[in-house]
Design a protein that fits this description.
The protein is mainly alpha-helical. Helix content is 74%, strand content 1%. Strands 1-2 form a two-stranded antiparallel ribbon. A hairpin with a 2-residue loop joins strand 1 and strand 2. The longest helix has 28 residues.
C-alpha cells in the first residue's frame, strides 16, 4: 500500500471509530454535534498513523490500537479547537472549514474542547477489550505518557511559553524549547505509545523516544515554513498567522534558510536514532519523510 493510501485508510478507520463512539444520548445534542464537527473528517490523522506505524514494528495491527488512536486524535482535536479560540491564536478556519468556535460560538468552543479531551481518554481507559489485551500496567504507562505530553511540562506549558514569547526577542534555544513542549511532546508520545503497547525493551523505548521528539520538532519547523510558503486554501487555515502575531519561530529570529537547514539536520538526526533499532519500521520511516516533505 502506498503511503497516501495508508494515511487515507488510517484516517477512514479512525473517523469511522469516532463516528461510532461520539454518541451521548444523555448529553446536550449541541455538544455532541460540536464534538463531531471538531474531530471527524478533514484532518490527516497523522498522530494515529504514527501510533499504528510504531506498533507495526512490534507486530501490532491497527484494529487492536484503535481505542488509543481514536483517543489520541480526540485529544489532538481538542488542542486545535482551543488553539483557534480568540484568546489564543484566533483563527477562523481549521481543516478547510470554519473553526469550531466560529461555527458554534466561543463558549461551545471551550466546552466542546474540554469534553473532547475527557472523552478521548475514556475511549481506551474504559474499553474492556483494550484493557484485557494490553493489561493494566501497560495502559497506565500509556496514560502517563500522554499526560506527560499534554501537561504543564508538555503541550499546555508549551502553549503558555508560545503566548508569552509573542512580539519578544527570543533565543534559538527558547524556540526549540517551545517546539519540544508545544508540538513535539505529543508526537513523541504517539511513537512511544506504539512501543509501550508492543512491550518494547528499554533501549527500543529510548531510541524511539528520541526519534519521536526530533520528528516532532521537524513537524513544527515544517509547519512554520508552510505558514509562509503555502496558501490558506492549501493549508485549510489562515496562512501568515505566525508573522502577523510575531510568533517565536526560527524563521523570525534567523530566517527561512536557517529554518530549512534546521529541518534537514534535525530530520537526519531523527533517522539516525530509528536506524539504530534492530526491528524494522518501514512505515514509520515513510511517515517521517512525509512530515518533512508535505505541502500542507
Amino acid at each position: 500500500m502506498k503511503l497516501n493510501e495508508y494515511l487515507q485508510s488510517n484516517a477512514t478507520l479512525v473517523d469511522e471509530y469516532l463516528s461510532r463512539k461520539l454518541r451521548f444520548p444523555s448529553a446536550p445534542s449541541s455538544l455532541e454535534e460540536a464534538m463531531r464537527y471538531g474531530s471527524i473528517g478533514g484532518g490527516k490523522k497523522v498522530r494515529a498513523s504514527l501510533l499504528f506505524a510504531a506498533g507495526e514494528g512490534f507486530s501490532l495491527d491497527p484494529e487492536s490500537l484503535l481505542p488509543l488512536a481514536g483517543g489520541i486524535e480526540m485529544i489532538h482535536s481538542f488542542s486545535l479547537v482551543h488553539d483557534d479560540l480568540p484568546c489564543m491564536d484566533d483563527d477562523d478556519y481549521r481543516r478547510g472549514k470554519p473553526s469550531l468556535h466560529r461555527a458554534f460560538g466561543e463558549s461551545m468552543g471551550v466546552l466542546a474542547g474540554d469534553a473532547m479531551l475527557i472523552e478521548g481518554f475514556r475511549f481506551f481507559l474504559s474499553d474492556t477489550v483494550f484493557l484485557s489485551k494490553f493489561g493494566e500496567k501497560t495502559v497506565l504507562s500509556l496514560t502517563n505518557t500522554l499526560l506527560d505530553a499534554l501537561g504543564t511540562e508538555g503541550m499546555v506549558g508549551g502553549q503558555v511559553l508560545d503566548l508569552e514569547a509573542e512580539e519578544k526577542t527570543v533565543s534559538r534555544d527558547t524556540v526549540h524549547h517551545i517546539m519540544r513542549m508545544k508540538t513535539a511532546a505529543l508526537i513523541r508520545a504517539c511513537v512511544v505509545c506504539g512501543a509501550l503497547a508492543g512491550r518494547g525493551d528499554e533501549e527500543e523505548l529510548m531510541l524511539l523516544s528520541e526519534f519521536g521528539r526530533l520528528l516532532g520538532e521537524c513537524f513544527q519547523l515544517k509547519d512554520d515554513i508552510l505558514d509562509l510558503t503555502a496558501s490558506s486554501h492549501i493549508l485549510g487555515k489562515t496562512a501568515g498567522k505566525d508573522v502577523a502575531q510575531e510568533k517565536a519561530t526560527l524563521i523570525r529570529i534567523e530566517g527561512m534558510e536557517e529554518a530549512r537547514d534546521a529541518l534537514s539536520s534535525t530530520f537526519q538526526k531523527a533517522l539516525s536514532y530509528l536506524g539504530r533499532i534492530e526491528r524494522s519500521f518501514p512505515r514509520l520511516r515513510e511517515l517521517s519523510c512525509f512530515i518533512v516533505e508535505r505541502k500542507k
